[in-house]
Write a structure and sequence with these properties.
This protein is of the alpha+beta class and about 80 residues long. The protein has a single domain, classed as Signal recognition particle, SRP19-like subunit (Phenylalanyl-tRNA Synthetase, Chain B, domain 1, 2-Layer Sandwich). Helix content is about 25%, strand content about 5%. It has a two-stranded antiparallel ribbon. Helix 1 crosses helix 2. The radius of gyration is 12 Å and the shape is globular. The mean pLDDT is about 95.
């Protein structure tokens, strides 16, 4: 999961994947990883990756293995992210 999935400043078309009420401003991959861990997942942080629409910015991403639907995982993680 890319941190941009949780960024309130992005539109749905630009990469946000949770509702604005669950999103936060400029989340970091480390914060997403901690929130995933708090949600009971075993996250793996990949630091050197860039979100495809912005390849010049290395934000990193989080890998989570689960049988849950991606949307449900995103909501559970978003609930645990710090609010800006």
């Amino acid at each position: 999961m890319w941190p941009q999935y949780f960024d309130v400043s992005l539109t749905w078309g630009k990469g946000r994947r949770v509702s604005k009420s669950l999103a936060t401003r400029l989340p970091k991959a480390e914060e997403v990883g901690k929130a995933a861990s708090d949600a009971g997942y075993n996250p793996e942080l990949v630091k050197s990756a860039a979100f495809p629409p912005t390849p010049w910015i290395k934000t990193g991403y989080i890998l989570v293995q689960s049988k849950d639907k991606k949307g449900n995982i995103l909501k559970e993680i978003a609930k645990r992210l710090p609010r800006a």
